[in-house]
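Support request from a user on the community tier.

User writes: "When I paste my structure tokens into the form, the page sometimes reloads and wipes my input. The last time it worked, I copied everything first. Here is what I submitted, just in case something in the input itself triggers the reload:"
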């Protein structure tokens, strides 16, 4: 799987509407990131300083942020992805047609092969 392969798949999709079949391996991934530097760069500085205004959270003492953490976890288990997609996209028409009226072939993207 390379950026070129993905670009080819997605450029084909831009030119016509098709149903996409996406197969993924069973996978679990977790990541975490300290958002403090990013938030400060975006201008959220007061919350990290002595002049932070969190009186509605804790009116009796001074409170400020020392850090902010973002954590994300992705779990794809056997059979789970297909059921989630079918529930979420029940309204999507299975046979999307081209402007000429003929059915377009499915785009199949398999990412479930062992490395």
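"...and here is what came back when it finally went through:"
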């Amino acid at each position: 799987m390379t950026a070129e392969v993905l670009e080819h798949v997605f450029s084909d999709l831009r030119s016509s509407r098709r149903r996409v079949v996406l197969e993924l391996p069973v996978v679990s991934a977790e990541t975490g990131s300290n958002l403090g530097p990013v938030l400060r760069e975006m201008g959220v500085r007061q919350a990290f300083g002595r002049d932070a205004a969190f009186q509605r959270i804790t009116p009796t003492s001074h409170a400020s942020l020392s850090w902010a953490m973002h954590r994300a976890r992705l779990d794809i288990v056997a059979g789970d992805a297909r059921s989630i997609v079918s529930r979420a996209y029940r309204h999507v028409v299975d046979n999307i047609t081209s402007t000429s009226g003929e059915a377009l072939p499915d785009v199949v993207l398999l990412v479930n092969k062992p490395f």
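Agent notes: The reload is a front-end session timeout and is unrelated to the input. DSSP finds three helices and four strands in the chain. The beta strands are 20-23, 27-34, 69-76, 107-110. Escalated to web team.
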